[in-house]
Amino acid sequence: MVVRWLVTGAGGILGRDVCARLARLDGASATGLLRRDLDITDARAVRAALRAHRPDVVVNCAAWTAVDDAETHEDAAARVNGDGPRHLTAACAESGARLLHLSTDYVFSGALERPRAEDDRPGPRTAYGRTKLAGEQAVLAGLPHAGYVVRTAWLYGTGGPNFVRTMIRLERERDHVDVVDDQRGQPTWTADLADLLVRLGLGALRGTAPPGVYHGTSRGATTWHGLAQETFRLLGADPGRVRTTTSRALARPAPRPAHSVLGHAAWRAAGLEPIRHWRAALAEAFPALLAAERQRPPGTVPPSHDRSDRAPD
Description:
By secondary structure, the protein is α/β, with parallel strands linked by helices. The chain has a domain at 3-160 and 186-219 and 260-276: NAD(P)-binding Rossmann-like Domain (Rossmann fold, 3-Layer(aba) Sandwich). It has helices at residues 13-23, 43-53, 74-95, 127-142, 163-173, 190-206, 224-234, 265-269, 278-294, and strands at residues 3-8, 28-33, 57-60, 98-104, 147-152, 155-156, 177-180, 184-185, 188-189, 212-215, 222-223, 242-245. The protein is globular and about 55 Å long. The model is unreliable at 302-313 (pLDDT under 50).
């Protein structure tokens, strides 16, 4: 039996790796749609896309990801992050497809200094977090038996700008780098998350993975400063060149969660193994990250992405 997959936001840092993982999966037929192929804010277009492709599983990687811009453009962000998942939910309910929807640690305030459980009560502090929470609620309410919300954070990969690739570039360009040491989270390789999403989708089809909320982040935790130091170490550079600073010193329009560590109990309940420790993943990913950054055309500087979920599609 061939399983049909549809990936929205397929040009983004995660969407690319999901499509690459599906390309290696036996018995899978995958279609990746870029933003120009499908605007998820258009309900008619969404319904037409599902009717045309007839997917068994939809993986929604499309999102408004500019955290700071959402503070002044919340209505626009809400159309993508709230209305878009609602349209996908309605189309999946009509077609019978399972929906895997990507969300974020920003649905929490980041104030609680313990790993957040999947059933903890959300409390976003930002416009971005509010719009992503609206998308979660639409999926869970509209697809109680076929909707899966996967929250992630601190993503890095070869498919686009991210914190690790920025540190690789800055190690060459600067004697010292100042990085915040008062935000704690779980660096997560997009390839690892893509593999986990595929396993979740297969579990959903088999009926072994119950619908609901899952947390798709690596095990372990560190600060942005710790991640930068580990990047320098893997480059063979002196980690002491990474100096500490505070979030207040680098104030942004949207406040960053101080504690973005997520718990993983739901995976084991579904019979699935959570993502490995972040250090092991980074070590394996690093040669490809280094190659991708060195292949960037000289003189070009990618957009600044200091957060995991700022990965445009």
